[in-house]
User: Fold these one by one.
Assistant:
Number 1:
Amino acid sequence: MAFENLSERLGKAFKNITGKGKLTEKNMNDMLREVRMSLLEADVNYGVVKDFISRIKEKAMGQEVLTSLNPGQMVVKIVHDEIVALLGTEDAPVNYKKSGITTIMMVGLQGTGKTTASAKIANLMKKKQGRNPLLVACDVIRPAAIDQLKTLGESIGVEVFSLGVETKALETAKQAMVYAKENGYDTVLFDTAGRLHIDDELMQELSDIKAYVQPDDILLTVDAMTGQDIVNVASSFHEQLEVSGLVLTKLDGDSRGGGILSVRAITNVPVKFVGLGEKIEDLDVFHPDRMADRILG
Ligand code: GDP
């Protein structure tokens, strides 16, 4: 599971300050140095760590902490709250339309878990949010991607709209919207093409679909295992498409967690969902405070 090492190291850093009646400046500086090292070793972006530590320092050295009965606990709380802030503070729900069909474009590099996430999200919407979703296979380059989506759709009882590989992605998207209207769907999720790298052709195709569909959400899947590269990928997609949310996948892997802790702070794009395994149910709505609890162990 992500964050295992980080949680352990932070726990050790706090051990020396909790339970103490009074904190000296040295106690505080030792703890801050340890927190800083833990974050850097977890591969959190350097600039993010620097700002994070200086915010904690400012708050932890304040009068309220130094004169409190249990200053250690207060400092731990300050760190907790700053981690929540790094992760986005507020929950970021799906931008459902009040009426009419909500449209969601799923984008991301190949292998990040985009197709799996599309099905997981459709399943969650159907089972937990009472929505009536339609999945649309817009990755028309790879026949395997269409088959994969169809298989997933069948397993969760969600219809998959596809015109095969002969029809262009934009045309598939257009016809899917007509189909959704005619058949009373209230949510349409477009599984768009994935590539190994970002290229102009991919971005053009995605921009064309975006211009036509005018999606309520553009969700980018990023793989936790790719560490800080998450930030580069998210920044590139965001620059070109204005992504409205992130889906962090493979949090069940043994990633160090640095990308996750950096990406929101750098791109300002909220995390909306997290993938926690290969099974359809292994998806959670993202809550910054719960994730912070997990990181702090
Ligand atoms: P796509 O190319 O981006 O559409 O990626 P896929 O949806 O095909 O997923 C690629 C691989 O990652 C598949 O083997 C998935 O089962 C796996 N995968 C997707 N999400 C997760 C996750 O949250 N955890 C784990 N462990 N594996 C995942």
Number 2:
Amino acid sequence: SKKITIAIDGHSSTGKSTAAKQLAVKLHYVYVDTGAMYRAVSFFALSENLIESGQLDREKLVERLPEIKISFVYNKETDRADVYLNGKNIEKEIRTLEVSSIVSKVAEISEVRAKLVEQQQAMGTEKGIVMDGRDIGSVVFPDAELKVFMTAAPEVRAERRYVELVERGDDVTLDEVLKNVIERDHIDSNREDSPLIQLPEAKLLDTSNMTREEQFELLVSWAEAAI
Ligand code: C5P
């Protein structure tokens, strides 16, 4: 059967990456988590002290973009691709609330987006790919055969993310996580360059009252219909 491109966009912490990853495994497709790439750039900005008391030095970051090389390397133990920054595995480092609290500011910068979008498009030239993010159906792969928009009530999303962070041993409160989820969605949906939008052709997946199995079944049925 023919290979297609699947674009999964949506709000923060809707379970996009879990669902997209599962779908890719089922279809024997490549899965790419583009949020991890924006997080990697944010981690670079943090480690290089380009952020002072919450204030990001955009000009410096843009100047230093050529130094940033992002790659994905398969990890046998977790059966997933870990994100690498300049040859160093930073998969754990990018999932903190500290990175989450600046990533949407980093993702507003057009030069950052242009660099990452170019790399993302290069990964999809052969199709047979499931990519998740905010602008995949609108900017990265406007011709994707299947586009999905995932959302859920903010409280449901915050609760899920909170449980994840606490399980990892992070010292966070549910309220902090809820604030971050709401703030990120606001910035992502209102930025000038490539805002998060629900495209008319995208299939809506509201996961508020759905189990992971139900989400997966629906996604598979949409993918099968598109292939
Ligand atoms: O998907 P995840 O929540 O890890 O993404 C982190 C942040 O990266 C988002 O809140 C958004 O600001 C940015 N992002 C983006 N475009 C993408 C993927 C992520 O702007 N395609």
